[in-house]
Amino acid sequence: MILYLLDLIGVAVFAVSGVLVAARSGMDLLGGFALAALTAIGGGTLRDVLLNRHPIFWIRDVRYLIVILIAATLTMIYISFLPPPGYSLLIADALGLALFAISGAQVAESTRHSPLIVVLMGTMTGTAGGMLRDVMSARVPLIFQQDLYATAAIAGIVVYLVLQKLSAPRTFAISMGVLVILGMRVLAVVWGAHLPRLHAAMS
Q1: Which of 82, 161, 172, 200 is the most exposed place for a label (fewest CB within 10 A)?
Q2: What's the rounded Cα separation, in Å, for the pair 184 and 193?
Q3: How many domains does one find in the chain?
Q4: Domain-located, residue 27
Protein backbone atom coordinates (compact mmCIF):
# COMPACT_ATOMS: atom_id res chain seq x y z
CA MET A 1 0.00 0.00 0.00
CA ILE A 2 2.84 2.43 0.84
CA LEU A 3 4.54 1.64 -2.49
CA TYR A 4 1.27 2.18 -4.35
CA LEU A 5 0.59 5.51 -2.64
CA LEU A 6 4.14 6.72 -3.34
CA ASP A 7 3.67 5.83 -7.00
CA LEU A 8 0.34 7.65 -7.30
CA ILE A 9 1.61 10.78 -5.55
CA GLY A 10 4.80 10.74 -7.62
CA VAL A 11 2.76 10.42 -10.82
CA ALA A 12 0.58 13.38 -9.82
CA VAL A 13 3.54 15.59 -8.89
CA PHE A 14 5.50 14.79 -12.04
CA ALA A 15 2.37 15.40 -14.13
CA VAL A 16 2.19 18.87 -12.58
CA SER A 17 5.84 19.53 -13.46
CA GLY A 18 5.20 18.37 -17.03
CA VAL A 19 2.35 20.86 -17.44
CA LEU A 20 4.45 23.70 -15.98
CA VAL A 21 7.26 23.01 -18.45
CA ALA A 22 4.78 22.75 -21.32
CA ALA A 23 3.28 26.12 -20.39
CA ARG A 24 6.69 27.77 -20.21
CA SER A 25 7.55 26.27 -23.60
CA GLY A 26 4.37 27.62 -25.22
CA MET A 27 2.79 24.23 -25.97
CA ASP A 28 -0.92 23.75 -26.59
CA LEU A 29 -3.33 21.66 -24.46
CA LEU A 30 -2.44 18.39 -26.16
CA GLY A 31 1.23 19.11 -25.66
CA GLY A 32 0.56 19.80 -21.99
CA PHE A 33 -1.18 16.47 -21.46
CA ALA A 34 1.46 14.62 -23.47
CA LEU A 35 4.34 16.16 -21.52
CA ALA A 36 2.53 15.49 -18.23
CA ALA A 37 2.14 11.81 -19.12
CA LEU A 38 5.69 11.45 -20.43
CA THR A 39 7.11 12.97 -17.25
CA ALA A 40 4.87 10.95 -14.95
CA ILE A 41 5.25 7.47 -16.43
CA GLY A 42 8.44 7.64 -18.49
CA GLY A 43 10.82 6.53 -15.75
CA GLY A 44 8.55 3.80 -14.41
CA THR A 45 7.94 2.46 -17.92
CA LEU A 46 11.66 2.16 -18.60
CA ARG A 47 12.12 0.46 -15.21
CA ASP A 48 9.40 -2.10 -15.89
CA VAL A 49 10.77 -2.88 -19.36
CA LEU A 50 14.27 -3.47 -17.99
CA LEU A 51 12.98 -5.56 -15.08
CA ASN A 52 10.70 -7.51 -17.44
CA ARG A 53 7.59 -6.58 -15.44
CA HIS A 54 4.57 -7.07 -17.68
CA PRO A 55 2.07 -5.65 -18.17
CA ILE A 56 3.71 -2.28 -17.49
CA PHE A 57 2.34 -0.63 -14.35
CA TRP A 58 0.08 1.95 -16.01
CA ILE A 59 -1.36 -0.62 -18.41
CA ARG A 60 -2.08 -2.96 -15.52
CA ASP A 61 -3.71 -0.21 -13.46
CA VAL A 62 -5.48 2.56 -15.39
CA ARG A 63 -5.77 4.66 -12.23
CA TYR A 64 -2.28 5.98 -12.95
CA LEU A 65 -3.56 7.56 -16.18
CA ILE A 66 -6.62 8.94 -14.39
CA VAL A 67 -4.35 10.58 -11.80
CA ILE A 68 -2.29 12.14 -14.60
CA LEU A 69 -5.41 13.54 -16.29
CA ILE A 70 -6.75 14.99 -13.05
CA ALA A 71 -3.42 16.49 -11.93
CA ALA A 72 -2.70 17.93 -15.38
CA THR A 73 -6.21 19.39 -15.76
CA LEU A 74 -6.19 21.03 -12.32
CA THR A 75 -2.75 22.49 -12.98
CA MET A 76 -3.86 23.90 -16.33
CA ILE A 77 -6.90 25.50 -14.73
CA TYR A 78 -4.80 26.98 -11.93
CA ILE A 79 -2.13 28.51 -14.15
CA SER A 80 -4.83 29.95 -16.43
CA PHE A 81 -5.92 32.26 -13.63
CA LEU A 82 -2.91 32.56 -11.33
CA PRO A 83 0.82 32.55 -12.06
CA PRO A 84 2.59 29.53 -10.53
CA PRO A 85 4.89 30.33 -7.58
CA GLY A 86 8.49 31.04 -8.57
CA TYR A 87 9.93 27.75 -7.38
CA SER A 88 6.87 25.63 -8.24
CA LEU A 89 8.61 23.64 -10.98
CA LEU A 90 11.68 22.93 -8.87
CA ILE A 91 9.52 21.92 -5.88
CA ALA A 92 7.34 19.62 -7.99
CA ASP A 93 10.38 18.13 -9.66
CA ALA A 94 12.20 17.55 -6.36
CA LEU A 95 9.17 15.90 -4.76
CA GLY A 96 8.56 13.73 -7.81
CA LEU A 97 12.22 12.72 -7.88
CA ALA A 98 12.16 11.75 -4.20
CA LEU A 99 8.93 9.75 -4.36
CA PHE A 100 9.74 7.97 -7.62
CA ALA A 101 13.32 7.14 -6.66
CA ILE A 102 12.23 5.40 -3.47
CA SER A 103 9.21 3.69 -5.03
CA GLY A 104 11.35 2.51 -7.96
CA ALA A 105 13.91 1.14 -5.53
CA GLN A 106 11.15 -0.75 -3.72
CA VAL A 107 9.94 -2.28 -6.99
CA ALA A 108 13.42 -3.56 -7.81
CA GLU A 109 13.86 -4.70 -4.21
CA SER A 110 10.62 -6.69 -4.36
CA THR A 111 11.98 -8.67 -7.34
CA ARG A 112 15.00 -9.64 -5.21
CA HIS A 113 17.67 -7.87 -7.22
CA SER A 114 21.04 -6.90 -5.77
CA PRO A 115 21.43 -3.57 -3.96
CA LEU A 116 23.34 -2.11 -6.92
CA ILE A 117 20.46 -2.87 -9.29
CA VAL A 118 18.01 -1.48 -6.73
CA VAL A 119 19.94 1.80 -6.67
CA LEU A 120 20.16 1.95 -10.47
CA MET A 121 16.47 1.15 -11.01
CA GLY A 122 15.36 3.62 -8.35
CA THR A 123 17.53 6.38 -9.79
CA MET A 124 16.27 5.66 -13.29
CA THR A 125 12.66 5.73 -12.13
CA GLY A 126 13.19 9.11 -10.50
CA THR A 127 15.19 10.79 -13.26
CA ALA A 128 14.20 9.36 -16.66
CA GLY A 129 10.75 10.97 -16.84
CA GLY A 130 12.11 14.43 -16.10
CA MET A 131 14.92 13.92 -18.58
CA LEU A 132 12.45 12.97 -21.33
CA ARG A 133 10.31 15.99 -20.41
CA ASP A 134 13.26 18.37 -20.73
CA VAL A 135 14.46 16.86 -24.01
CA MET A 136 10.98 17.10 -25.56
CA SER A 137 10.71 20.76 -24.49
CA ALA A 138 14.20 21.63 -25.81
CA ARG A 139 15.65 22.19 -22.33
CA VAL A 140 18.96 20.97 -20.96
CA PRO A 141 17.96 18.04 -18.69
CA LEU A 142 18.53 18.70 -14.98
CA ILE A 143 20.45 15.44 -14.70
CA PHE A 144 23.12 16.87 -17.03
CA GLN A 145 23.41 20.15 -15.15
CA GLN A 146 25.92 20.70 -12.41
CA ASP A 147 23.59 20.68 -9.41
CA LEU A 148 22.72 17.61 -7.33
CA TYR A 149 20.00 15.59 -9.08
CA ALA A 150 20.79 11.95 -9.79
CA THR A 151 23.28 12.15 -6.92
CA ALA A 152 20.42 13.07 -4.58
CA ALA A 153 18.39 10.08 -5.75
CA ILE A 154 21.32 7.72 -5.24
CA ALA A 155 22.01 9.07 -1.75
CA GLY A 156 18.36 8.76 -0.70
CA ILE A 157 18.09 5.19 -1.97
CA VAL A 158 21.32 4.20 -0.21
CA VAL A 159 19.99 5.65 3.06
CA TYR A 160 16.75 3.72 2.57
CA LEU A 161 18.62 0.45 1.92
CA VAL A 162 20.98 0.91 4.87
CA LEU A 163 18.10 1.57 7.24
CA GLN A 164 16.31 -1.50 5.90
CA LYS A 165 19.46 -3.53 6.51
CA LEU A 166 19.56 -2.22 10.09
CA SER A 167 15.98 -3.46 10.57
CA ALA A 168 14.52 0.02 10.88
CA PRO A 169 10.73 0.25 10.40
CA ARG A 170 9.90 0.35 6.70
CA THR A 171 7.93 3.58 6.97
CA PHE A 172 10.87 5.27 8.74
CA ALA A 173 13.33 4.05 6.09
CA ILE A 174 11.10 5.34 3.32
CA SER A 175 10.60 8.70 5.03
CA MET A 176 14.32 9.19 5.61
CA GLY A 177 15.14 8.27 2.02
CA VAL A 178 12.63 10.80 0.71
CA LEU A 179 13.87 13.50 3.11
CA VAL A 180 17.51 12.98 2.09
CA ILE A 181 16.61 13.44 -1.58
CA LEU A 182 14.51 16.51 -0.88
CA GLY A 183 17.20 17.98 1.38
CA MET A 184 19.92 17.56 -1.22
CA ARG A 185 17.74 19.13 -3.92
CA VAL A 186 17.08 22.11 -1.64
CA LEU A 187 20.83 22.49 -1.07
CA ALA A 188 21.38 22.39 -4.82
CA VAL A 189 18.68 24.94 -5.62
CA VAL A 190 19.03 27.38 -2.72
CA TRP A 191 22.76 27.26 -1.99
CA GLY A 192 24.07 26.05 -5.32
CA ALA A 193 25.59 22.84 -3.92
CA HIS A 194 27.05 20.63 -6.62
CA LEU A 195 29.60 17.94 -7.31
CA PRO A 196 33.12 19.09 -8.20
CA ARG A 197 33.90 19.42 -11.87
CA LEU A 198 36.30 17.11 -13.64
CA HIS A 199 39.60 18.69 -14.64
CA ALA A 200 41.88 16.98 -17.12
CA ALA A 201 45.59 17.76 -17.07
CA MET A 202 46.77 19.47 -20.24
CA SER A 203 49.82 18.07 -21.99
Answers
A1: 200
A2: 8
A3: 1
A4: yes
